[in-house]
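the four lines:
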Amino acid sequence: MHDFVFDTAHLLAGGLVLMSFVMLYQDRLPSLINAFALQSALLAASVAWQALAQGAPHLLVTAVIAATLKAIVIPLVLRYLIRSLGIHRTIETVTGIGPTMLAGMALVALSMGLMLRATEASNVIAREDIAFALSVVLLGLLIMVTRRNAVGQVIGFMSLENGLILAGTGAHGMPMVVEISVAFSVLIAFIVIGIFLFRIRERFDTVDVAALDRFRGERQ
Amino acid sequence: MILAAVMLCVAGMFAVAIAAATLASRPFGRVFCYGMMAALALAALLAAIAGLHGGAVETLRLPVGLPWLGANFRLDALAAFFLVVVNLGAAASSVFALGYGRHETAPKRVLPFFPAFIAGMNLVVLADDAFMFLFAWELMSLMSWALVLTQDRDAANRRAGFIYIVMASFGTLALLLAFGMLAGPEGSYAFSAMRGHAPDLQTASVVLFLALLGAGSKAGIVPLHVWLPLAHPAAPSHVSALMSGVMTKVAVYAFVRIVFDLAGVSDWRLSAVIIALGGVTALLGVLYALMEHDLKRLLAYHTVENIGIIFVGLGLALAFRANGLHAAAALAATAALFHVFNHSLFKSLLFFGSGAVLGATGERDMERLGGLIHRMPKTAAYFLIGAAAISALPPLNGFASEWLTFQAVFLSPQFPQWGLRFLAPAVGAMLALAAALAAACFVKAFGITFLGRPRSREAQTAHETDRLSLAAMAGLAALCIVAGVVPGAFTAALAPVSKAIVFDRMPGQNPAALWLPLVPSLGNANSYSGLILFALLAAAMALVALALRIWANGASRRAPAWDCGLPDPSPATQYGAESFAQPIRRVFGTIAFRAREDVFTPPPGDTAAARIHVRIIDPAWEALFAPVGRGVNFVADRMNPLQFLTIRRYLMLVFLSLVFLLAVLALWL
Amino acid sequence: MAVTAALALQGAQSVLGLALAPLVTGVVRKTKARLQLRRGASIFQPYRDLARLLRKESVLAYNASWLFDHAPAVILAFTWVAASLIPVLGTEPVLASAADLIAIVGLLASARFVLALAGLDIGTSFGGIGASREVMIASVAEPAMLMLIFALALIAGSTHLTAIAGFVQSPAVGLRVSLGLGLIGLIMVAVAENGRIPIDNPATHLELTMVHEAMVLEYSGRHLALIELASSLKLLLYLSLIAAVFLPWSADIQWAGAPPYAEQLLIYLGKIIGLAFLLGLFEVSIAKMRVFRAPQFLGAALMLTLLAVLLRLVSRSF
Amino acid sequence: MMLPIDPAQATLVVPACAALLLVIVPFSRLGAWINMLASFLTFAAALALLIVRPAAGALLAVDDLNVVFIVINTLVGFTTSIFSAGYIAHEVEIGRLTPRYLRFYHAMFQFLMGSMNLALLTDITGLMWVAVEFATLTTVLMVSLYRTREALEASWKYFILGSVGIALALFGTILVYMAAQPIVGDGLPAMTWGTLLANAARFDPALLNIAFAFLLLGYGTKAGLVPLHAWLPDAHAEGPTPISAVLSGLLLNVAIYAILRFKLLLAANAAAVAPGPLMMTMGLLSVLFAGFMLYRRRDVKRFFAYSSIEHMGIIAFAFGLGGPLANFAGLLHMAMHSLTKSGIFYAIGHMTRIKGTQRIADITGLTSSHPLLGWIFVASVAAIAGLPPFGVFTSEFLVVSSAFAHKPLLAVILVSGLLVSLGALFLRLNSLAFGEPTGSLAPSYMTHAPMILHLAIVLGAGIFLPAAVAAWFQHVAHLLG
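prediction for all of em together
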C-alpha cells in the first residue's frame, strides 16, 4: 500500500515537472495557457492525493482551490484577455527552444541533487515532493526569464506558485495558514496583474513588457 | 583644573555658535560672536599657557559619545602647546574679524560655523580616544567646509569645497584605519590603551603610512596638497588664516600624537620617508607659490612649504630618537615645534594683510594691485614684517626656527646609517633652496602688491583698513619680532613638549637668562642670539643715521622716475607677478611643472598686441587626482546601463544568483 | 674689563672694515684698469666718489615710498653687522656667540631682500629686471653657500666662523679635497653675490645685462652713497671670509703678552689686497655670461659644495 | 492597569480600524487627521511596549529584537503621516490626485503600517511572510498612485520582482518548516520562532542552508540588496514622496529584520554554513555598486534611493560580520539611517513641491532661496554621508573599526565604497543646496517639524547615546550572536 501511495505521489509530482517542461516548450500563448491549466489540474490531483496519504482533509481545500481557480478560471480569463487585448498569438522567446530545454534539464538535475541528498531526515514522500517542487519553481522562473511577453511571464510566475503549493502540501502537516496565504496571494496577485494589464491597455498598445520598459527611468 | 577650564571655554564656543545661528541677521550679531570668541579664545590661551608651564597631565572623562568608552580628554605638554597655537590664532583672527567682518556679504554663512570650527580644533587637540578624536577632527573639517562655501555663488568655490570635503573624509578614514591598526583586533580605542603596547615594525609602518595619508592630507604634504590652495583662499580671510595657520598645525599635532606618542615608531627607515617627503614638500610648495599670482593662493602654497620644513624637523627627530640620540632628537623636535608656532604667527598675519587688501580693493590678483604702500602704509608695514619673517630673515622668528632646523641637519653625521647620513645633507640643500626661493617669492608678493604703481583703479582708490584689523596684525607682527629676538624664551617653553615626545630637552636654556644665545647642542659651540643681532643692527642704523646727519647733504628733491631716461607712464610696463617670476620659472618650472611659454608676436606691419601665454602643469594633480576622477567616471559610465535593463533581465539577475547559490550549496554539501 | 677691551676690539674691527671697503673696490678697479692697459683712477677714487655723492642732494621719484627712502641705511646696516662678525684681528670677536655663518648668510639675505624691494618700489621696468634677476641668482647662490657651511661644519665640527677659523689654524688640518672643492664653490658664490663678471658687470650700464645696477638705478645722492658703500663692504666681507677660512696664516699669538694686533692687521691687509688683485685678474680674464647661464654656473657651485659634503661624509681623510 | 487589549495587539488593531474608517470617510482633510491620530496611537502603543511587555500570545511575541524595530517603525510612520498630510493636500490642490485616490491612499497607508507591524511582531514565520506580502502589494498600489507611464512601469517592475522575491521567501519558509518538522513535530510549533530557535541545533543543516539561500534572496529582494535591487530606485522615484520615505525608512528595515530572524536559526545550528560571508558579500556589492551608480543620477529621489541601497549594504555587511560590536553597529546604523533618510525624503518633498521638478539640475541654491529648508537638507546629507556630529558617524565608525579588527581587507573595500558615495553625495549637494538659486522662490507652507525632529534625534544620538538605549541595543546585539 505504502509504495503505491508513494508511486502515485511520485507520478503526480513528476507530472508537474513534465508539464513545466511542456510549458517551457510552448511558443504560442493559447497552448501555453492549456499547459498551465493541465499543470494546475495535476497539482490539484497531487494535493488531493497528499490529503489522502497524510490523512489531512484540510489539504482538500487547497486542492479544490487549485482545481477551480488555477485549472479553470484563470486560463479562461487569460484567453479572454488575449482576445480582448488582441495580443499577437506567438510569443517570441529569448533563446531557441533547444537551449532552454537543456537549461531546464540542468535545473532539474540541480534540484534533485540538492534535495535528495539534503532531506535525509524527513520521510520519503516529502523529499520526493520537495525535490520536484524545487524543480517546478526553478522551471517557472526559467519560463519567466525566457518569455518576452507579459502574459507569458505571468503564467511562468503562476507555475512557480504551483511548485510552492506542491512543496507546502508535501511538507507533512504544514499548518493551514500557509495554503490560505498562498491562494490568497495568488488571488491578489492575479487581481493586481489584471488591473495592470487593463491600465497598460489604456496606456500602451501592447502588453509586451519591452514596451513597458521603454521609459525605465532617467532615460530622457 | 586647567583642562576643565579649557573645556568650559570650548563649551562656551559651541554656545556662541548656537547663539550666532540666531543672531547672525542682527546688526550686533557680528560684534557679539567675534567678541565672545576673542574672549573665550584668550581665556583658553591663558589656560593652555598655564598648562604648558605647569606640565601636569590632566584627564577628563565625559559620559557622552560611545557609552562604554565615553569621551576622554587629556591635557599634556604636547596638547597644551598646540592649544596655545590654536587659541592664539583663534583670538587673533577673532579680533581681526571684529573689524574685517564688515566686509562679509553673508554673515549668516560665517558666524555660526566660525566658533564651532575653533571649538572643533580645540577638541581634536584635547581628545584622548580615537572616537572623540575623529569626531572632533571631522567636525573641524565639516565646519571649515561650510566656511569655504561662504561665497557659494562662485563655481570655483563650490569645486574647492567639494575637493576639500572629499579629501578631508579620505583623511579621516585613513586615520580611522590607523587607529584600527593601533587598537588591534580586540583593542580598545582609548589612547591610554594604545600607548600600552608598542606595535611591531610592520604595523608601525602601516600606521605611519596611514597617518601620512590622514594627517598629511590635512597638513598639505605633497602630493596630497591639491585641495589646500583651492580651499584656504576661498574662505573669508580671517578663516583662511585659521585654516592655513592653525588647522594645518592641528594636522601636525595629529601626526605627532600618532607617530611619536601612540605608535612610538622607532625605525630609521620610516623616519627617512618622512624626511624625504618633507624636503620635497618644502621645495615644491615654494615653487608652486612662485608660479602663483593670486595673493591668497600664494600664501596657501607657502603653507605647504612650511609644513614641509616642519616635517623635515619631525622626521629628523624621529630618526635621532630611533638611534637613541636623544639630545639631537630634542633639537630637531624643538626646531619643528618652534616652527609650528612661528608659522602660525606669520601665516595668520599675512592672511590678515591679504584680507585687508581684499577688503580695500576687492582684488586678490596681484596683477591688478600695486602701490598700496602709499594708501595702506600700516598694513604694508605689518605685511612686510610677516613677509620677512616667513622668508627666514634674521632677526625675525622664521629665521630662528629654520636656524634650529639647519642645526639639526648638521647633526646628521651622528647617524650610524649611511642612508640618513646622505639623505640629511641633500634635504638640507632642499631646505636652503626653499628658503632662498621663499625670500624671492615674498619679494614678489610684497613688491608687486604694495610697491610700484597701482595697476588698477581699485588699487588707486584703496583706503587703509580699520583699527581692529590693524591691531590684530600689529599684535602678531610684534610677536614675530619678539619670538625672533628672544627665541630662547620660546624654546625653553617647548622643553616639556620635547621631553614628552623625544625624552629629552634642548640644552642651554636656563629660564633665568633667556636673553642668552640659543645653544642648541652642547657638542659644538654653535649659538645664535637674536637679541645681540637686533642690538647690533639698531646700533648700526643709528650710527649710519648719525653719520648721514653729520656729513651728508640731507636735502631731497622729488622728480619723475629716471628709468634710464625713458620712463613709461603706463603702469603696465612695470614688472608684474608673472614677469617677476619668469627667470625662476625658466630655471625650475620647466623641470617641476613642465612650464611652457608660448610667445605670439604679430608679423611686421600688424599692429596687434604681442601675447605671451604660460602653461603650467601640476604634476600632483596630473599623476594622482585626475586619474582617480577619470577612473570613477569610467566605472560609473560602465555601470550606468544597469539602471536601464528590462524587467526580464532583472529577473534574470535574480534567477542567476539563485541558481549560483544553489549550485554552490550543491557542490559544497 | 676684559669684556670692554673685547668690545673695543670689536668696534675697532667694524670701523676698520667700513673704512677698508672702498679701498678694496679701488684696488680691484685699478688692477683691472692696469691689466686692460689703462691707467685707471687711483685706488682711493671710491672714497672721493662717496664724498661727492654725500655732498649732493638726493633725487627721489614722485612715487618713491618710505621704504625706498630708508632702504639704503638698512642695507648698509645689515651688511655692516654681517661684515663685523667676520674675525679679522685674532680669532675671537666678543660677539661671535651672536651669530654663526648661517646667521651671516641670513643677514646678507635680509640686505638683498630690502634691496630687491627698493628696486621694485618706483615701479620701473629696470627695477623689476634687476630685482627678479637678483633673487633668481640668490636662490641658487644661497644653497651653495649653505652647503659650503655644512662642509666646513663637518670639518671643523661647528658652524661658527671663529671656531672654523681657529680649527683651520690648528696644525691638525692639512690640505683636504673637500676644503679645495669648498674653496672653489665659495669663490663662485662670492663672484655671483657681489655681482662681478661673469655673472654681472658692476661697471656696465648696458640695460640688458644689468642686475645690481638696474636695482639701484633710481638712487642718487646720499642714498646711492650708502648703497655703494654697502656693496663694497659686501665684497670685503667675502674676501675676508675666504681669507679667514682658506688662508689660515696668522701671527703666533703666544709671541708676547699683548696680542700683536699691528702684525695681524698687516697680514690681513696683505691677504685682502692679494685677493682683490686676484679678483681683478679673474674678471679681466673672462667674459660675462648670459643671465640665464648664471643658474648653471651657480648650480655647479652647489654641486661642488654638495660633493665636498658627501666626500667628507664618506671618510674623514677627505 | 488593565487594558482591554495589550499594546502589541494595539499596534495592529489601531491601523486596521483606521484603515476601515478611512475607506469610509469621504473628506480628505478629516482623513489626513485620522491618519495622523491613528499613527500617533500606534506609536504610543509601541512606546508602551517598552514599559509593559505582554506575554507571548498565540500569534504575537514581543522580544527585545523586534521592539527595536517596532519603535522605529511606528515613530517614522507617525512623522510621515504628519508630513504626508501637507504633501497630499498640495497634490490635491494642483490636481495631481483626486479625492477618490486620496481616500484609497490614506486607507492604504494605515494598512501598510499595520501589516509591517504584524510582520515585526508576529511569532509565526508564515504569518510574517503573509504580512510582508501584504506590505509589498500595498506599496505596489501606492507607487502606481499617480498613474503616469513612469509610475506604472515602476510599480509593474516592483510588482514582478517583488512577487518573485516573495515566492522565493515562501519556499524558504516551507523548507525551514520541513527542517523543523521532524524534530518538533507537525503544526504551528514548527513555525514558531521560540521553538525553532530552541531546537535549531538539531535541524538538518543542509536543508537549513538551502532554506537560507531562498530566504536571503527572497527577503533580500525586499531589502534592495544588489543584484536584487532593481525595483527600488524607480519605486522610490515615481511614487508619492511620503511612500518613498516609508519604503526607505521602514520596509527595507522589515526585510532586514526577516533576514536577521532566519540568520539566528543558522547561527544556532553549528553544522550549517555561516550566513555571514554571504551577507557581507552582498553588502559590499551593494555599497560599491550604489556608490558608483550615484554619479549618474539625474532624479533627486532616485539618487537618494540608491543611497538607501548603499546603506542597506552597510547594514547587511555589519550583521554579516557578526559579533556584538558589529551587530550593535548594524542596529544603530539601521535606526539612524531610517530616521535620516526619511527626513531627507521629507526635505525632497518640500523642494520638489517648491520647484515643481525632481531633476537635480533644476534645483539649485536652496540655502540661498530657502535657508531653513536648505540647511536642514545640508545637515541631513552630511549626516547620511556619515559625518559628525550625527549618529550615522558613530555607527559607521563602529562598523568600519570592527570590520578592520577582523577582516582588514574588507574594511578597506568598505571604506573606499563609503568614500565613493560620499563624493557623489557632496557633488550633488553642491548644486542642490548651493550656487545661484533657480526656479520658484515661493516659501514652503508645509511644516518642517518632522525633518527637524528626525535631525534632532540623529544629532542627539551622535553626541550622546543614552546608556539605557546602548545597553538595550547591546543586549539585542548579543542575541544576534
